[in-house]
């Protein structure tokens, strides 16, 4: 009984696997799908009857259509045999006996006899496994991250340690599909009907990536704020999605080797919110005040403050108040020194009394005569 079933299964499978298949992307995929098996289109508009073919055999001459934005990964008995990154239609050709087809010109007698005998050895099923998988080469969005408590890093601009609770999202890109499949994708996803999605909450591998991103946030903030090329400003994080994405990508590469070991890279980020701890908020307020009082704007603000103080002192404190303001003004170099440079004092006018006094001294010393003294006196007095 078992022998007849094996023979019937072997012959029936061989007949069904002679048909060429048309492989394409499965319907209803989420936009965040990263890896999934190509599926045969058994029927189209009510036509087609290739519904009994083996699920793990691709017949020679079958066509596989690669859409824009995807790569095609081919596997034979669990090993990656080829990768195609260009969109278009491709024809499957394999030396494996199970893929031979009379419709692909592989011969009638040798195909039936060899395939039936090989399948009979395995109880009627093919002794080989072939598969085609599509890998997304697009940016994969909506990968979210967030911290439940403060993370801390050394800030290059503030010159001290700062802390914050943050959340946001990033876009991920598969930059090396072969590394990605070999080193990261679990075997359970290399099966027909399975979809590897980074945003799937039940995907344990994707959850591991989430934990690694959270663990890399503090180093990423430190890399960004300590990079002079990015201005060292913590406040720029939410406006510089590409710059912070590079810092975050560098941080996860240093800590977890995403690109070199897994073929993954972070390409963009969005910081939805940053809630600084109380100490950091106070420090940022101080920095904002210092920025506001810097340069010409600070000079204007200080002049306005002194003017307001003079007005208040005049209204409330009388002369004593004005004396106090004068002392304060002196500490800053005076109000006038803030407004404009002090002009040099004009030379004092000639003093006639001093001139006459000096002339009398000269007369007494015999340096001038009485007539000279009388002439100088008349000139000094305008006579």
UniProtKB/TrEMBL annotation:
It holds the Pfam family Band_7_1. It comes from the Bacteria. InterPro entries: SPFH_YdjI (IPR033880). Residues 55-185 form the SPFH domain. This is SPFH domain-containing protein. It comes from Stenotrophomonas tumulicola.
